[in-house]
Amino acid sequence: DAKTTQPTSMDCAEGRAANLPCNHSTISGNEYVYWYRQIHSQGPQYIIHGLKNNETNEMASLIITEDRKSSTLILPHATLRDTAVYYCIVIAGGTSYGKLTFGQGTILTVHP
Amino acid sequence: GAVVSQHPSWVICKSGTSVKIECRSLDFQATTMFWYRQFPKQSLMLMATSNEGSKATYEQGVEKDKFLINHASLTLSTLTVTSAHPEDSSFYICSARERDNWSYEQYFGPGTRLTVT
Question: How far is B91 from chain A (nearest CA, A)?
Answer without folding.
Answer: 8
